[in-house]
Amino acid sequence: MNEFPSFPGFPAQGLQFLENLARNNEREWFQAHKEDYLQHVLAPAQEFVFALGERLKSISGGISYDTRTGGSGSVMRIYRDVRFSRDKTPYNTNLRLIFWAGTRKKMENPGFFVRIDPSGVELYAGTYAFTKPFLSAYRDAVVDDQLGRDLQAALRSVSDAGEYQIGGQHYKRVPQGYDAEHPRADLLRYNGLYAQAPAILPELITSPQLVDICFQHLLNMAPVQQWLVKVGKRYGV
Question: In this predicted model, what pLDDT tens digit does every residue of 167-181 receive, in sequence order?
Answer without folding.
Answer: 999 999 999 999 999
